Amino acid sequence: MTNILLNNKSLEMFIQTVGIDQEEKDFMLSKLPQMDLEERMKLFDVLKEIYLLDLEEEKAVARAKRIRQG
Amino acid sequence: MAKKQEKGSEFFRGQGEAGKEGGETRKTIEVLEPETPWTQDLLGEEKSVIDNYEKQASLSTNSKKTVESVLTEEIYQVRNNFVKEYFASHENEIQEKGYDVKSQDLGYMYKVASEMGALNELKKDKKYKEQFERLDDLAALRMDFQSENPSWNGRWQAIGALGKRIEELSQEETGSKDEKKIKEVRAEISRLSQVRKEIAEKMTGRDLKKEAEKTIPVPSIEQVINAKNKREEKEKNERKEYVTLVTDGRLYGLNRLSRNEFLNKYYPEAKITTSGILRKRIVFIRGDSQQICKSEEELNNHIIALKVQEKQKVINEAGIEWYKMRQEQMTPEQREYEKRHDQFIKEQTETKINECDHPIIREFLSQYYPEAKITTSGMLRRRIVLDIGVLKTDFKSEEELNRFILSLREQEKQKIMDKAELDWHLSEREKDVMKKMEAELDQMSDLPEGAIRENYRKVKTEVIRKHREMLIKQEPKNAEALKALEKQFDGSGRNPAEMIEKAYNREGLELTGEWKDDREQIGDFLKEEWGLDIPEKMMDKLYRTMTTKEKQIYQNEYKKRIGFLGWLLRFVFLAFSEGVEVVSAKPETKRKTRKKAKP
Question: Which of B448, B390, B357 shows the shortest CA–CA distance to B155?
């Protein structure tokens, strides 16, 4: 059985989803195969944080526009 | 019979003036409406993720209250419009239930609409989508501004909301002719603008006034006077050129006229007769006036004087023509500027110039040059010496001294005029500074998207930077370890982004905050949505570790979206560290359906 949250494929998908520069993504992808469980958990935390910021950013932009325009 | 309209019930506290139609001035609503059924994305005291990274200076109570009242007014506006729409489309039902369908009292109308389930319709019916969304936005932002420290995003939104309100007020100001109303509107714009400035400056750490001041130089007295002299000189020359141009022909014609031609043209009613016993006196009669001349020469001189008067009239008329032409050539803004300038100079100088002109010569000297001393010198003490500090002058006579004092008076008056001119330019500069600052604030109100995205980018970069530094520092693993890792983390995958979103939105979870009640739900969620199978005993063990060692208290965190997600991830990671077995990548069993959790 594989760890569905932290295996290579899942984390690759996660890296590609978040809104950061491709250069940063490539760096993370290059380091991923060498990461052990602890390191993957840390990476996951970072990606989770960025993903939440992504979601929040879209909401914030939409709401700011709506509030301004009325 | 229509049901009695209940006014002042607790339900409508805070409806206040904003609920009335056609109110001249908007008033602050102190008590907020008792229910806000429309805050979808906030739970408890939680703010946004970005607030963990963006520490904001606290806002003044006045700013928070002002934003709150602007939002409250708008909430009432949207809600009142909805209520009116609801009344119009539910007329029969309202009547059937015995309510007064003709009522115009918005408080009453809102109560009736609420009792008839209008709020549910507002929430669910697609035709009210925009109104609901707007109420949700406004209510969420207002809730944010009721908290101790409004969020980073909320502050941006408030700058936008204030910008919108300022724009509306500016339109009101432009459209109004009522002086009192204009004054009130201007005061309100200025008040809101101050608040907008405070929020913007605290958010960005900028000093917008100083920035604007840097771009507009402070005029010096020399610059102002030079510019004024140049302008006046230029105008004088233009006027002279124009007057010469248009009067040349007219004056030439006038000069060429003989005495009789001149009199016939300009004084056709004039008569020349003689009087006296010997009829030696020549009388020039013009209307009621008579000029008695002793000789023909005297009469000629008198007529020449009249000709000079006529010539002066021609020149004066040309001067007026030039002035009118100059006015016509000006843009309305230039005319307005000149009018305001002249008014300002008049207000600043009139009294002072009068005060300066009023005293007799010696009084003037003692008032304006109190240090001045007048003595005499010379062998016969005939010379008069005036000593004004740095200036010591002697005069041959009293008259000469007086003429000098009069010239000092002229200088003093010029100083008053020059000072007023400088003050005018300084006040205009202050206005330009304020305008520039307002334009900057308007831009901040209009373009929050760029600023919001830029800040999120900055925060994300910072989050990555720390992690990147940590990765760079790590020792490379040997081939054997890499092979083991490859094997350990091989296999098909699933994008964790979806899994995170489900946990953030608590899809299928109805949490109570009690571990015993929630454990099963969380266990099912992890198994079905995240592909993790954690036995109950292990869950309890992990829960205890979380509470005692990790100090992550479930009862606190479950109340917040981000808090719960963070807690859940830590819980799962602890399970990984304990070697909990994972199940398949894609859950094969279909989840039992639960009602969607209410936030």
Answer: B448
* Chain B residues within an 8 Å CB radius of A37: 488, 576-577
Question: Where along chain B do its domains lie?
Answer: 10-205, 335-474, 494-577
- Round to whole Å and give the CA distance between B575 and A18: 25
Q: Render pLDDT for B504-553 as a digit per residue (tens, 0 to 9).
A: 888 888 889 999 999 999 999 998 888 888 889 999 999 999 999 888 89
Asked if B445's CB is within 8 angstroms of A67's CB, the reply is: no
Instruction: Count structural domains, chain A.
Output: 1
| Nearest in space to B530 (alpha carbons), one of A3, A15, A52 | A3
Instruction: Give contacts of A 1-40 with B, CB under 8 A.
Output: 1-14, 17-20, 24, 27-28, 31, 33-37, 39-40
Please report whether residue A43 resides in a domain.
Answer: yes
What is the rounded average pLDDT for all residues in chain B?
84
CA atoms of B441 and B447, how far apart (whole Å) = 10
**Which domain range does residue A50 map to?**
8-15+37-70
CB < 8 Å to B456, chain A: 53-54, 56-57, 60
Taking the CA atoms of B326, B329, B335 and B341 in sequence, report the sign of the dihedral they define. negative
By C-alpha distance, the chain A residue nearest B578 is: A37
- pLDDT for res B46: 62
> In terms of CA atoms, which chain B residue is nearest residue A44?
B496
What are the pLDDT digits (tens) for A18-33? 999 999 999 999 999 9
Query: Is the model's pLDDT at B36 over the cut of 70?
Result: no
Reported residue count of chain A is 70
Instruction: Let me know if residue A21 belongs to a domain.
Output: no
pLDDT tens sequence across B147-198: 888 988 899 999 999 999 999 999 999 999 999 999 999 999 999 999 999 9
Mean pLDDT of B545-571: 90
Count of CB atoms situated within 10 Å of the CB of A40: 23
B489, B500, B529, B573, best to mutate vs chain A, most A CBs in 10 Å: B489
Q: Which chain A residue shows the shortest CA-CA distance from B71? A: A67
3-class DSSP string for B116-136:
CCHHHHHHHCHHHHHHHHHHH
Residue A26 located in a structural domain: no
- Which of residues B143 and B42 earns the better pLDDT score? B143
| CB-based contact B565 A52, cutoff 8 Å | yes
- Would you say residue A51 lies in a domain? yes
| Cα of B507 to nearest chain A Cα, Å | 16
* Chain A nearest CA to B43, separation (Å): 14
- Does B463 contact A31 at a Cβ distance shorter than 8 Å? no
ipTM: 0.95
DSSP assignment string, B40-60 = -S--TT---GGGGT---PPPP
pLDDT single digits (tens) A12-66: 999 999 999 999 999 999 999 999 999 999 999 999 999 999 999 998 899 898 8
- What count of other Cβ atoms lies within 10 Å of the Cβ of residue B459? 20
Q: Please check whether residue B12 is in contact with residue B80, taking contact to mean a CB–CB distance below 8 angstroms.
A: no
